[in-house]
Structures are given as C-alpha cells and as structure tokens.
Write a structure and sequence with these properties.
Blueprint lengths: L2 H11 L11 E8 L2 H7 L2 H7 L3 E8 L1 H14 L6 E4 L3 H7 L20 H6 L1 E2 L2 E2 L2 E6 L1 E6 H7 L9 H11 L20 H12 L15 H17 L9 H9 L5 E5 L3 H4 L11 E5 L13 E6 L7 H12 L1 H11 L10 H4 L2 H4 L4 H10 L23 H16 L5 H18 L5
Parallel strand pairs: 1-2, 1-3
Antiparallel strand pairs: 3-10, 4-5, 6-10, 7-8, 7-9
Length: 437
C-alpha cells in the first residue's frame, strides 16, 4: 500500500468515516518480461471490472534482473513487492524460510485440486501451497519443417543428440541468415545453466556426486561442453553467448532458427500467425537423449507468490486468484485463441478438446509428466531438481558457473579451462558451505 492509503486506513481503525476512494488498495507486482506475463498486463480491464477497489502497479524486468531484485527484497524483508514472480527453484527454499505467505486459504473457485500434480508438488512445502503457477513448462525441440524437408532430413519425434547435431549441420544456411540451431548462451542460472544442466542430465553428467563433490572434472561434462560449444559455434547465430530465452524465441519467430531446444511454453507463439510467418511450418519433438535413459527435459513453473513482508496480502491473493484461475485461461482463449492460453498448470486445460487438438498440447503434458525432480540424473545424486539443484547456494554458484561457460562459448577461454575453473569454484563453495566435510 502507499503511505497515503496506510494513513487513511489508520484513520478508519480509530473510527473515522472512510470514503470509497480511501478503500482502494495498491499492490505492486514484480514480473518477468516473457510474452505471457506481458499479455496479462493487457487484460487488466477484466480484473479492474471485477475488483475496482484494487490498483495494480507493475514492475516488469528481464529474467536475471528480476531474480536479483526479488531475491534481495525478500531476503531483507524490504516489502517493495506484494506479488512476485518466482519459480520452482525458489518456492520450496523460501517457503521453508518463512518468506512466503501460504495460499492454502484461497477461495473455492481457485480449485487447487485442478493444478497439475507435478507442478503443484513443486510449489508445496509441508502441506502449504506457497505459490500459484501462471504457466508450467518442460522443454522440447521446435524446428522448421520446410527447412528439414529442403535439407532432405527427418527429425524424429524422440530424437537423440546425434540426430540434433546432424539436423543442425544439414539445415544451416548462414549465407541466407538461417542458423541450424539456437540454444541458450546468456549467462544465468535460469538461462544457459538451465539448458546445460538438463543437457548434462541426458549425457550422464551431474553437478555433484553423492558426497556433494563437484563433477565438472569428469568426462561426461567434457562431452556436454564440447558438443554445446561446437554446435553453437558451427551452426548457431552470431553472438550466441548473449542469447537467452527471449532472444532465441525472437530469432525463431523471424524464421532464422532452423531448430531450437527450449521451453514448451513458447509453442503458442511459434504457431501463432500473428507472431510468426512460419506458424504453419513448425514441427515439434521431444527433448533429446544420449541413449542413457534420460531426456534433456526440464520442469518449471513461473508462479505468483506473496512475500511475508507484504502489507496487502488479501488484495494480493485476490489478484493471484484472478491471474492463475481457470477463468483467466478461458479469458485469454476468448481473446487470442486456445493456442495463447497459459499452458502447463491445470488438468482441465488438457481435458479440453479444443486445447488437446493443438499440435503441441500432448507433447507438452507428456514432457511435464516425464520430468522427475527426485531422480533427475543417470547416476545417483544427493539433490532434487531437474534444471537446478534445490539448495540455497545454487543460484549464486550457477550464476558464476554460467558466466564461465558463456565465456567459453564466446571463445574467451577453452572448454578445458572453463571446466577446471567451474570445478575449483564449485569445490570452494561446497566446502565453505559445509556440504563437503
């Protein structure tokens, strides 16, 4: 709330007469600049029509900046935000810290039992739902079917990494601005390291062994980084080390990425003729594997949560119910079609025949259900999490490792040097934090 509103409400508390204007509550919502979140801001007339007593102020930030700002604010109890956009990594850790408000008292129309079990489970701690998913995702491969046909290749529905490398080589046409593959290169634990961690899972690599000893000095990580750098250096766009989710999606919408592995949530944009002239030429495939029984599919939900420091919790819950309710999904569909509906959160969406008929619907739900945070790797590990390690130290450590690996992609250091640097950094962190005795 603003200072003036606090003063007015204080006057109400001692018996003064409150006007309708005085009862207006202002909440501040911090969110990421992804397309689905930006769309929500364009639909606020519906919210205001239902809740004229609540005003929403938006803080919309790039993913890495959002994470830094929100983490700093909530860890210090700053109270700058009433609703924050956070993910499956933060919710369990912050919930245990007592930093988040429980959403167990949401109204009946919220229909908590409709939330997809894997997504709901990742946002629940000790029986408390601490965030409501705005959209859920796994990862998949999208590609231009016309370019695959022109190159004389077929991309299997369940490809291997060898299939992906061969397809990237075959479809690359840099003279005409067509890049065989676009993968995340921008440094960040939720950018390049989200991708590389799932790629590592499928290659048999892991962050730590059973005793929390870092594993970047093992041959599996050498194979991951060698193939990753080679694919993007030979077949990727210029400046790949600067490209994250949004940048690569833009290149795909422009038809410049022949193939891309990234979040399933982007399928709606890729198949939308308003956003892409290649909408009818997009094919989809499962995230690749290396023949070891693990695919490189992740599990994530961008979710809305309420910091314990908020002084407008009731209004914040009202907003979250509107933004993550089944009615909101229907609202988006009525305005822009079912392809634009926020995916990956509710069982009812996937039982809707209009949505189920979309070319990416089944692959999305199958990928979400296949991701197993409790058993993410080929070899045993002491941690949970698919594209992250669910410990508080991970965000800082993976951001630093992400910078090292992004520098390797940019040609500023060799793969061997990058892995050695990551190993030393991770070993120091895990020792200092008491994981290694």
């Amino acid at each position: 709330m603003t200072v003036s509103i606090r003063a007015l409400l204080g006057a109400c508390a001692v018996g003064a007469i409150c006007t309708a204007a005085a009862a207006e509550t202002t909440i501040t919502v911090a969110t990421v600049n992804n397309g689905d979140m930006v769309r929500m801001q364009g639909l606020m007339d519906d919210f205001y029509a239902k809740h004229p007593d609540i005003k929403v102020e938006w803080v919309t930030l790039e993913e890495n900046v959002l994470r830094q700002n929100v983490t700093t604010d909530i860890a210090t109890g700053g109270g700058q935000y009433d609703v924050i956009t956070i993910g499956t990594y933060e919710v369990p850790i912050w919930g245990k810290q007592g930093w988040l408000e429980s959403l167990n008292d949401m109204p009946a129309d919220f229909d908590v039992d409709d939330l997809l079990p894997p997504i709901r489970g990742g946002l629940t701690v000790d029986g408390n739902l601490y965030a409501s998913p705005f959209y859920g995702e796994s990862s998949f491969v999208n590609y231009r079917k016309d370019l695959a046909e022109k190159a004389g290749i077929t991309i299997p529905d369940a490809p291997t990494w060898d299939d992906i490398k061969a397809a990237a080589a075959a479809m690359t046409d840099q003279a005409n601005g067509i890049y065989g593959i676009c993968l995340r290169g921008k440094a960040g634990w939720g950018e390049n390291m989200a991708f590389l961690t799932t790629m590592a899972n499928s290659y048999g690599a892991r962050w730590f062994d059973e005793n929390w000893v870092p594993q970047f000095d093992q041959p599996e990580w050498k194979a991951v980084m060698t193939d990753y750098v080679e694919m993007l250096t030979k077949y990727g766009p210029p400046g790949a080390s600067n490209n994250g989710y949004n940048e690569n999606l833009t290149l795909s919408l422009q038809g410049k990425c022949a193939m891309r592995m990234d979040a399933t949530v982007s399928a709606g944009a890729l198949t939308d003729p308003k956003q892409s002239e290649f909408a009818d030429k997009v094919g989809f495939a499962l995230a690749p594997d290396a023949g070891l029984g693990k695919r490189a599919n992740w599990l994530w939900a961008w979710s809305l949560a309420i910091p314990a420091s908020s002084d407008a919790k009731d209004a914040a819950k009202t907003f979250i119910n509107w933004a993550t309710n089944k009615d909101y999904i229907a609202l988006v569909a009525s305005k822009e079609g079912w392809g634009a509906a926020p995916p990956g959160t509710r069982t009812s969406l996937y039982s809707n025949p209009d949505y189920a008929a979309l070319p990416f619907a089944k692959m999305t739900i199958d990928s979400i259900n296949a991701a197993d945070p409790t058993n993410p790797t080929v070899k045993p590990v002491p941690y949970t999490g698919v594209q992250f390690v669910a410990i508080p130290e991970f965000a800082g450590l993976a951001t630093s490792v992400g910078e090292i690996f992004s520098a390797a992609l940019a040609g500023q250091k060799s793969v061997d040097d990058a892995l050695a640097e990551a190993q030393a950094l991770a070993l120091d962190e895990m020792t200092a934090s008491g994981y290694i005795k």
